[in-house]
Amino acid sequence: MFKSLVTVLPKIVKKQFFQRNCASTLAFIESSKDGSVSRSSLSLLAAAQKLSNPITAVITGSQAEKTAQALKSSYACNNLEKVVIFEDPKLDTCLPEELTPLFVKLLKNNDYSHFVVSNSSVGKSVLPRVGALLDVQPVCEVTVIKDPKTFVRPIYAGNIISTIECPAEKKLLSIRASAFTPIMEGSMESVAIEKGTDIPPSDLDVIWVKTLLTKSERPELTSAENVVTGGRALKDKKTFEELLSPLADVLHAAMGATRASVDNGLCDNSLQIGQTGKVVAPNLYIAVGVSGAVQHLAGMKDSKVIVAINNDPDAPIFNVADYGLQGDLYKIVPELTEKLRR
After folding, report:
1. Does the 8-195 domain belong in CATH 3.30.565.10?
2. Would the annotation count 7 as a binding residue?
3. Would the annotation count 289 as a binding residue?
4. H-helix or E-strand containing 18?
């Protein structure tokens, strides 16, 4: 039936038919400097599978081939058909001005109906630019994929959950990584790795000067299984470090902070969790001296177990906490740390 239908269709109709029914998903895979696949990209692939389209992964930078091999040999993604790599050192910094022309060029190919990126700093920078050049409205921070054109996302700091039906021919999506379980370990021997060519030059004269990063041996905040977060009640930077670091060390946890803590200089802004910071969903989230402002809750309320330590019994954080300890945090935290060491 399918064969005979295609035979009688005019060429133009036939082309439109295949564009609607045989399109695939283009997924941007991020990696670390050592070439390993980022955890957020593993969640991205899990989300892309729910679109029920064949998936083409795109990896950029000088370590692209190493990342592609790691993805192919270490993980299993049912719908992944091929990986296209663009090996160019200028793409190592993931400047949106360099990446955007490449993605726009790829998406002008009618093979792709969906473009998905993780809701990382790179994804947040690239997706709006791609949307503007293609004249398509992106759907950001998707937490549920109901079908290839219907998506769920939080709005108003997570107070409202919005269901969106996107009629656009090309759908641009950013995925909240914490909402999707990463793909499982395995292997994908049948997946082809292709080398891309002709990287379009950037129209903007942008130069990467240098990178200033806060070095830490702790787990990466957005992918950590345990997170210890400090609020404004910790008063100063010394107290923040001396009180929370031992507890984080015992739990092998990442350290986070509220916006008030960051604004008051208690810690680096890379630790900020919340609506204007990072979104986390660890197995264990310990909030120390955190009041629970709605902007902060938007970044951590999906945590599996939430423990709140605060001397204010009316603090909003207790409304979302699974366990609450009311009292002097300067006494509770050292005692808790000592008991966990035993």
Report:
1. no
2. no
3. yes
4. helix 11-21
**Residue 228 assigned ligand-binding role:** no
The domain made up of 221-341 has a fold known as: Rossmann fold (3.40.50)
pTM of the entire predicted model: 0.81
**Structure-token pair, residue 67:** 């990342």
The answer to whether the 8-195 and 221-341 domains have the same CATH topology is yes
pLDDT tens sequence across 273-321: 998 889 898 999 999 999 999 999 989 988 999 999 999 999 999 999 9
Q: Does residue 292 have a known ligand-binding role? A: yes
Query: What residues does 272 pair with on adjacent strands?
Result: 257
291 annotated as a binding-site residue: yes
Does 261 carry a binding-site annotation? no
294 labeled part of a ligand binding site = yes
259 labeled part of a ligand binding site: yes
Task: Please state, in angstroms and rounded to a whole number, the distance separating the CA atoms of residues 87 and 196.
Answer: 8
Per-residue pLDDT reduced to its tens digit, 2-53: 333 334 444 444 344 444 445 799 999 999 878 899 989 999 999 999 999 9
CB 272 within 8 A of CB 258: yes
At 13 the pLDDT is: 42
Q: Flag whether 293 is marked binding.
A: yes
